[in-house]
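Re: manganese (II) ion structure - here you go.
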Amino acid sequence: MTSFSDIRPLLAEQAIELPSWAFGNSGTRFKVFGTPGTPRTIQEKITDAATVNDYTQLAPAVALHIPWDKVDDYAALREFAAEKGVRLGTVNSNTFQDDVYKFGSLTHVDDAVRRRAIDHHLECIDIMHETGSRDLKIWLADGTNYPGQGDMRGRQDRLAASLGEIYARLGDEQRLVLEYKFFEPAFYHTDVPDWGTSYAQVTALGEKAMVCLDTGHHAPGTNIEFIVMQLLRLGKLGSFDFNSRFYADDDLIVGAADPFQLFRILVEVVRGDGYGADSPVAFMLDQCHNVEDKIPGQIRSVLNVQEMTARALLVDRDALDAAQSAGDVLGANDVLMDAFYTDVRGDLAAWRESRGLAGDPMRAYLASGTQERIAAERVGGTQSGWGA
Ligand code: PSV
Ligand code: MN
Ligand code: MN
């Protein structure tokens, strides 16, 4: 039996990057609701991310989105983050909001547009040198709406050539992670729709290129944990964008829609050595908080990941192996479900207290008065890039 005390040291290795855009106002095409206390600047976003880390010790890094988080002095921003106790993490590029990218970016048929998209990524790499970020994350909105609208093969070839130029600019310690998404904003075909396409593209680039798996970017019913297993097996799982979905790319709080799915994913992460301080897999959130307060939304998110990680670490591997080898179908299933149904909340609270944290970080944050203070201090909070 694996017990909670066996997994205590492993829990300390958990690190989840928070997206700067989770702290801005966001919404749907129907309405962007503002929440009191919303940050007005990237510095205030970093401050709020640092607050999440102060209460949980789970979120030591903040991912940036360029140009949403563009500043004149990235070295100063890096120092600012360090003073708050966090670091700047993954840099996300953005080639989906300019008119020029209406028909694509890295895949575009026009060399001038493609050049512009490539240059944007080179600028992101320059920024990464200043922020100390390791990863460049590329998510492309490229695709078409109608059969025949574009030459899918030509677009794939141009994508490979564009990525090749970007990859060549990476420093020795830097990586590129290519995210896939099965549809939206393009509805007929997307140029990087699935893990296989991302895998094929990054494999052609080399060792420093890996796949980013966003849990919200699959068709309903997809066995995401199988993909996790396969990418880990192939050594190409670079990062996660965690969130939950009911219908499409909902970007809801991770673990809210289907905690069991999150557990199954984390079981494969642990099985494939994707968990821990030495793992090459970056855990990130990619979420928006449309109607709830942002800081509590992020606290709930990282705690959900921690809780399911603890349960995944509790899986009794020896018992599972034995049941699987013996062809004991229901016995093997029992071993997994035992871990999933273990209520770790009390043990986690005690573990936090042993590390000087509040046992219930959410309650401690809500009692701290921070939410009321920022609501009073910050008038006119900005929208995340999504609300723009
Ligand atoms: C768009 O679907 C998206 O949600 C992708 O998941 C990116 O990671 C994110 O936006 C930020 O660019
Ligand atoms: Mn994402
Ligand atoms: Mn998404």
